[in-house]
């Protein structure tokens, strides 16, 4: 084969393809908060901006609500705008999202919400198509990275045409799939003209909201009538089969491949609905009526299925044929197709998978902080939070994990509900990015209510779990242009906290003393919430130099396993057969915390 | 048509290898689709990538359909073996001897000798490219890695590749 380079084709991740679509649509403002599997949308937007010298403004916002509002403001100003987030981020942004559906938009406004069926890296398996339905916002559901690029352009077009926000819902298997994607040409910045004052619309009181609700319903009706994406599209077969499969999103790709690869399934007609809300219910019903049996496969809620009025010949979630939770992987899709096509079920060998659990990196500054928290506050309830700091679970230093910022809010409740005889000590831990995102209001609440708990803010300077995006403490914005750094300590004091101390978690003695001071302030003296900021850059931050000092375990080791159990350092392991502990020098980051915490003092610097 | 699984622990560079193979194949004008692991698992957890070359729309390989399993970690081979066809080939980073259906190379030791254990993924892919049916050749890998704009990275990657191409 002769190699050729076609500069209009690139091997792109779904999220990169979406970002390319945002640029090609002439979008002027983009805002996001990182979260798997959505984070690469804004990251690659920054790269496209630089590569194409494009004027788009990009920001990592403090949270998804603010990201949506920034994008909405830009839309009102006449720009095309985008906000990107993961599905639980839409929960945070839900207040402006639902209201914006009523008010409508000016410049095209696209909200990219990445779903995580599985879930692989999330708290829920919620279906953002259903959220779109709830909010009365149209939802486009791409099945491949190529389709994600094309649908991004369509989303801006539809949004502007109907003056309505449009939700683009890629699932993980689109976001983190890569494919050779055909690129188009970036359009000039779109501009629908200057914002003009009109308070009955942009600041509508309830009386006008009723009018706007009527207009929103009319927009949705027109979209169903006018836009072909609302109708099922035949992607495999000729429409004459006895069996139909109706799909949406990345499951449609699994279904198409599975059916195409097996001639016994060749008799199926596979349909895809590109706009699962608002779908053309009559056109969907026609597919059902034209086939003896119809299987509906979609992730993760029965959105298409519920829009079908006569479901007597329909198999899906509501009939109990499709599992109500978990990712619909190709194997499951194959089993479903076989069962409706009367092809004998596959005898799949039982799969024994022992996945390695994720843990804090060697040298992670969270590790000594968690270790010392457990030592200083025995028998406390440890409320934890979202991000790398969740991994304190492995060290027995995180007991709860609800949602962004909940470590602080829940600590208030736990501390206010003591049972007689309990010491009811509560210690909350949260990462810096998560604290900015949703911890601040909860901390003000704790100060005001004199809630007695210790809050440890683990400040590594970045949003680590999602790949190191900058926080408001960074003096630069997403694309490196200058911003203003927010000072964490001043922020905490501004919330009304009197006792705030900053400490380097690598400094064993200082860390111990700082946590003990907080304990005294909050629990012994009863002076309310205290805050400890453990500050040291994430070991994965570019430019952070790891220590070249290595360590070894001496014969004083009595195999107590504290380094494995309590410190949970991935670089230390037990050597079977030799009955000894070993430090993996490939992994060791040289933090040296093990030297201080080994009960037998059996760790010493190499070369000592 | 070729279906491949790459696996290892978070931090070993499975995603990097997937992108290298995908980009080379895409540049040859082939249809490629792949799936990567991101998020919490990259903190030292189990990682795998799926790579499919041919007329595919789904990025996921089904159980029993992979032609080859390229593994950077022996423990992860066991976690991904079910993807392999019964006559499929395993290429594994391990100090053990070959077995029927398993070709091994101690890529970790070779990379450590080169001065950087993180190069184990490049050593392994060089070795894998010698296997019949592997979608990209050693020459194609060399040409691709030689385009890295960072001189130090380029030099180390090319050294590691040659080590994998020449080992044993």
Structure write-up:
The complex is a heterodimer of chains A (about 600) and B (about 170). Chain A is α/β, with parallel strands linked by helices and about 600 residues long. Chain A folds into four domains: about 10-225, Rossmann fold; about 230-340, 3-Layer(aba) Sandwich (Rossmann fold), CATH 3.40.50; about 365-535, Thiamin diphosphate (ThDP)-binding fold, Pyr/PP domains (Rossmann fold); about 550-605, Alpha-Beta Plaits. In chain A, strands 3-2-4-5-7-6 form a six-stranded parallel sheet. In chain A, strand 10 (about 245), helix 11 (about 250-260) and strand 11 (about 270) form a beta-alpha-beta unit. In chain A, helix 1 (about 15-25) packs across helix 2 and helix 15 (about 365-375) packs across helix 19. The radius of gyration of chain A is 27 Å and the shape is globular. Chain B is an alpha/beta fold. Chain B has a single domain (about 1-165), classed as Pyruvate-ferredoxin oxidoreductase, PFOR, domain III (Pyruvate-ferredoxin Oxidoreductase, domain 3). In chain B, about 35% of the residues lie in helices and about 25% in strands. Chain B has helices at about 15-25, 75-80, 105-115, 120-130, 140-145, 150-165, and strands at about 1-10, 30-35, 45-55, 65-70, 85-95, 100-105. In chain B, helix 2 links the parallel strand 4 (about 65-70) and strand 5 (about 85-95). The longest helix of chain B has 16 residues, at about 150-165. Chain B starts with a strand and ends with a helix. Chains A and B meet through strand 1, strand 8, helix 11 and helix 14 of A and helix 1, strand 2 and helix 2 of B. Strand 8 (about 175-180) of chain A pairs antiparallel with strand 2 (about 30-35) of chain B, so a sheet runs across the interface.
